[in-house]
Amino acid sequence: MTINTIITSAPPAPQRSNPDTFADLADAFVSWLGTLDDQLNQWASEVNTTQSEINQNKIDTETARDIAYKWANENEDTQINDGIHTGYSAYHWSKKAELYKTQAEKARDLAAINANATVYDPNTTYNYPDAVIGSDGDIYRCMGTDVVGDDPTISDSNNWKKISDADTLDGYHAGNASGNIPIKVMEKLIQT
Length: 192
What we know:
The chain is α+β, with helices and mostly antiparallel strands. The protein has helices at residues 19-73, 90-116, 183-191, and strands spanning 80-81, 86-87, 118-119, 131-133, 139-142, 160-162. It folds into two domains: 19-73; 93-191, no CATH class.
């Protein structure tokens, strides 16, 4: 609200030194005092209303600031409800983007490994750095020379090193013996 009340200027005050105009000026001045009272009351009401609106605007501004801060900075996986919208903060999504970037890099690396890995064959001779896909779906790197018949999924020798883990998304998973990525790993990729 704005303050619209205009307080009218006082008329000339009566002077004892001018008795001819004293009564007329006194009447006009006393009449003005009556309107001044009404004008001051209206002005004070407008000032109070304006002050209340200023206070409410301050509260609304601070609330909007706090909500904007939450939308920008709320912790990861903490849902925000501002009374109008529900969702997650920019910080949350930046952390998810970092995670998705890491997962994409792992998928890229996995694809590169898969491109070079072959399904394990007990009749094939393997040498470092050959990679094979074991019957468990994990990828193994040959660490030895002239390795034949040593199944990497059950080997207790130093001929093989597991370089992926089919049960976790954190490892590089190549797929099962058919070369396909198991459904449980794909589900983990989709859910995160």
